[in-house]
Amino acid sequence: MSPKPLIAITSKKILAKAWGSLTEYVFDYLHSDGGQTSIKREVYDHGSAAAILLLDPDQRLITLVRQFRLPPHLNGNDPMMLEVCAGLLDGDTPEVCAKKEAVEETGIAPRDIVFAFDIYASPGSLTEKVSCFIGFYGEADRIGAGGGLDHEDEDIEIVTIRYDQALPMIASGAIIDAKTVALIQHAALSGHFG
To answer: Is 1 a member of any domain?
Structure first.
């Protein structure tokens, strides 16, 4: 493990505060060669999250969700992103959050959950750390309709694909969400796809 860099925050200014906060930081960074630089960065913080890849090992299926995302739209990409279930922690533990999001978004209550890894999707500008899980389910674990929560303006389509479709969908660009790509690749490398 590399040593922690030495920094001293010299100023902090909140630029915007709504759903999350955008803060400008100025800090002195001490380089490994002994030099020092003053750096200015904007950091967005809306809390950390949990994500869960739902696997049906008997049927060899993955359940994902598709929903509108504004940033891809602004970049000229298809805004209807295919993703694993995920949500902000909002005071819950990551495991509790992952289970709750699975039920809200897909109606599936996974019977077993395994921690996979923590990930920062964009550590250069976002504080969000996503705790990632794999959740195993069968037909008996479908306890609701899913589709998200109306009061959170969620309009979620439930999408079920075969294991053998997942990696090719990443290669073709049909799945480009970072947490989803990482969880699918982790599941394949860990032998969860059999």
So the answer is: no
Mean per-residue pLDDT pooled into runs of 10, the chain (194 residues): 76 94 94 89 95 97 95 93 96 96 95 97 94 97 75 79 96 96 97 87
Detail the residues annotated as belonging to a binding site for GDP-alpha-D-mannose.
19, 40-42, 69, 86-88, 105, 128, 153-154, 179
Q: Are residues 35 and 74 in the same domain?
A: no
Q: Which residue matches tokens 């990409």?
A: 77
From the list 55, 80, 74, 73, the residue with the least C-alpha distance to 174 is 80
Binding site for Mg(2+): residue ranges? 86, 101, 105, 154
Residue list, annotated binding site: 19, 40-42, 69, 86-88, 101, 105, 128, 153-154, 179
Domain with 11, as residue range(s), is: 6-45
